[in-house]
Each structure stands twice: as structure tokens, then as C-alpha cells.
Specification:
The chain is of the alpha+beta class and 209 residues long. It is built from 4 helices and 12 strands, in the order βαβββαββββααββββ. β2 and β3 form a beta hairpin. This is PepSY domain-containing protein.
């Protein structure tokens, strides 16, 4: 059995996005994340208030903001990944973080589908789509998730298994120092410290950062 040494770190007052494993530009800058995500809906972008219920398209992305906190339950996060993936035909979630929409906590999930990128906002319990929008231009993470054999839900389950009772801060797909595609998962331990876990996107092997 592979032994994993986990490093706990104190939770910062205002958590940001996880740093990539290598000096490769991540798909979103911190400023863009504060604005609510990488994609911006163009004139043809669509939104839904719930799965299958279309809302009028808008000229800009709906207002959401990234928030801190102690994380969300792993069960809610896995449900949100499933809900968001089902909202887009052939959807493959590759990024999840918490956010705020009109004062309500939500989960913001980025989903890849047929080479395109969508942002799906899901209720905090992971059960219902609040809205969704297509990005004008897909990020390079879309190609990464298309190469992955381990999906986001399985990666989250593997990471959470290293620390039962922890919650999820955020997760995303990225590339490590040797070019391998990995899932980067930030967990919040019960004592408030954070655990940064990499899950190999091909084998689900786990390593700590």
C-alpha cells in the first residue's frame, strides 16, 4: 500500500486558487476568479434557471463571487459535479469552487463538452442548476480533462479518503512538474488546517503537496 505523507497548513484569511504544480500559467488569474470565473458569455451564451429550463441569453456573465469559508461537504461537492456534468451534453466537470450568488452560497463548476467550456452554477446542496453559460473561448484545461481517465468525482473521492471528515475547499485539473495531468484538491481538515492533494488523472494515485 502506498504511504502518503500529508502536510497540514493553516487556513489563510482569504483563500485563493491553488497554485499550479509547475510554472505553467494557470487557466485563470486570481483577478479573474474574484470576478467570478474565466469565461464570459457572449451574445450567443445561454443560461438556465434549472436543468432543461432555458432563460433569456444575456450580454454578460451573471454576477457571482468567490467566497472563503471552511469548505463544503464532500457529498455535496460530488453531487454538484454530477449535476453540472448532466446539465451539458457529454459534460465533463474539471473545476469546482464555492461562490456567492445574490447572497446565497453556490458551487461554481466548469464543464467541458465537445471542446467547449461551460460554467454551471449549482445550488449549495449540489442538487439543482441555478444557471449556466458558455465561455467565449475554452481554456487549456478543456484539453486536459479530455485526456483524463479519472473523472472529477472519482478524484475527489480518492483525495477525501486520505482524511475522512474533511470538507472540500476547491479542486481543479492541472499539470504537474513532469507534464502529467493531475487533479489538484484542496481539503479543509476538521481542525481548520488545509490539505493539498494531487490525484493522478490516469491512475488515481495520490501524492501530497
Amino acid at each position: 500500500m502506498q504511504r502518503v505523507s500529508l502536510t497540514r497548513r493553516g487556513v489563510p484569511k482569504q483563500p485563493g486558487r491553488m497554485k499550479p504544480s509547475v510554472g505553467i500559467a494557470s487557466s485563470c488569474t486570481a483577478a479573474m476568479l474574484v470576478a467570478g470565473g474565466c469565461g464570459h458569455a457572449g451574445p450567443g451564451g445561454s443560461q438556465t434557471g434549472s436543468i432543461g429550463a432555458a432563460l433569456p441569453a444575456t450580454s454578460g456573465e451573471a454576477s457571482t463571487s468567490v467566497t472563503g469559508g471552511r469548505g463544503i461537504s464532500v457529498a455535496s461537492a460530488r453531487q454538484a459535479l454530477q449535476t453540472a456534468g448532466a446539465a451539458v451534453p457529454g459534460g465533463r466537470p474539471f473545476d469546482l469552487e464555492t461562490g456567492s450568488d445574490e447572497g446565497q452560497r453556490v458551487l461554481e463548476v466548469k464543464v467541458a463538452s465537445q471542446g467547449e467550456e461551460f460554467k454551471v452554477v449549482v445550488a449549495a446542496d449540489g442538487q439543482q442548476v441555478v444557471r449556466q453559460q458558455q465561455a467565449d473561448k475554452p481554456s487549456d484545461d478543456v484539453a486536459k480533462v479530455e485526456r483524463a481517465k479519472v473523472d472529477a468525482r472519482r478524484a475527489l473521492q480518492a483525495a477525501a479518503g486520505t482524511d475522512p471528515g474533511s470538507t472540500l475547499s476547491e479542486m481543479e485539473i492541472d499539470t504537474n512538474y513532469d507534464g502529467a495531468v493531475v487533479w489538484q484538491v484542496a481539503l479543509v481538515h476538521r481542525d481548520g488546517s488545509t490539505l493539498q492533494i494531487d490525484v493522478d488523472a490516469k491512475s488515481a494515485a495520490i501524492s501530497a503537496r
